[in-house]
Amino acid sequence: MTYNIVLSEASAMHRVRAAGETELQVGGPWSGERAQLKTAPLLYIGPAPSFTSYLDKKVILLLRDAKVVVGVLTAFDEFGNVVLQHVFERIIVNSLYCDRPLGLFVGRGENVIFCGELGQDGPEMPAHMVLVTEDEIRSAQRAEKISSHLRWTMRKRMEFLDSDVG
């Protein structure tokens, strides 16, 4: 089976041809080089996302560590690195949320999972969400962590009892 994978870089497009499921034949400046695949090959990797439509607009970023930041996108580069101004971290626990101010934010492109524009019209948060202070959201986070740990412990105990019977 042969796949064509297109990789996008700032200067040029490189075509990659995969032979089988375990070997890559690389074209372009790396002609003739081979690479082994650990998993099934990707069929297509499109061009890097363009942030030009988001410049000087209020955006929301979901980061790889599950943090959510909101701010005005002021700069970006070809690697997806971003610079935001007037940034705050949005912390959400169940139906409570808190906006913790950060100021200026410089984020590496590899850490950005999602970027979306926040519309100017309409509310930023659904009506059932309640804005609370930073202390209240921290105590809600602690309570959620304890509750989650308790659920996990109970699930493990139930699995242990189920495995004992059979």
TrEMBL record:
Gene Ontology cellular component annotations, sorted alphabetically: Lsm1-7-Pat1 complex; P-body; ribonucleoprotein complex
Gene Ontology biological process terms from the UniProt entry: deadenylation-dependent decapping of nuclear-transcribed mRNA; mRNA processing
Source taxon at top rank: Eukaryota
Protein location: Cytoplasm; Cytoplasm, P-body
Principal location: cytoplasm
Residue intervals passing through the bilayer: none
Pfam families reported for this sequence: LSM
Keywords: Cytoplasm, mRNA processing, Ribonucleoprotein, RNA-binding
Example of a GO MF term: mRNA binding
Residue ranges constituting the Sm domain according to the UniProt record: 46-121
PROSITE patterns: SM
Complexes and interactors: Component of the heptameric LSM1-LSM7 complex that forms a seven-membered ring structure with a donut shape.
General function of this protein: Component of the cytoplasmic LSM1-LSM7 complex which is involved in mRNA degradation.
Protein family: Belongs to the snRNP Sm proteins family.
Protein name per its UniProtKB record: U6 snRNA-associated Sm-like protein LSm1
Record organism: Marchantia polymorpha subsp. ruderalis
Gene: LSM1
